[in-house]
Here is the input.
Amino acid sequence: MSPLIEIQEIKLASPACDPGSQRWSVFVPVEADLSEVMPYLNAVWKDAQYDHRAKVLIRRSGQHAIAIRPHEVAVSNALDRADAQRLVEELIAEINAVWQRRDEITPQTEMRRRPTAMEVYKQLPRTNCRACGQSSCYNFALHLLAGDVRLTDCAPLTEEARRALAELLGTP
Ligand code: SF4
Here is the structure.
């Protein structure tokens, strides 16, 4: 079976919100219509925000924001062209793999709401112990939503709270 996306061209641009930045936004024009794969990606990526009507799927992956539109894949925060190439190749391999096994996946078109920092904060120990390196539990919640830290960085977190947060954030 041929892949859904084949990389023809990679475009780098300064982020619109931060012109002159040393980091790059990466854009890959895609010939195929990616709106068909989006409901399958939405089913697999539990932490994605998907708008079926607008045909856009957004996800955070570590330091990077990913946006998929019908004829474009975009990734933020690349260091340089080599980093952009690596990020794009990994992402497109993942999308192609989901497309290849779409017969085994139940597509999902519902929109997922992103939890607020306060909702995340309420599940944390709220002791501001700073063991995670953040100045407060609320700061940790903000960084968790930005993908800069992981649940395992909060050592005092109980297993029950970890499960509740993983459910809220759509992460394993
Ligand atoms: S380690 Fe956990 S409890 Fe301590 S400040 Fe960080 S988030 Fe709060």
About this structure: The first helix runs from residue 38 to 44. The chain has a mean pLDDT of 90.
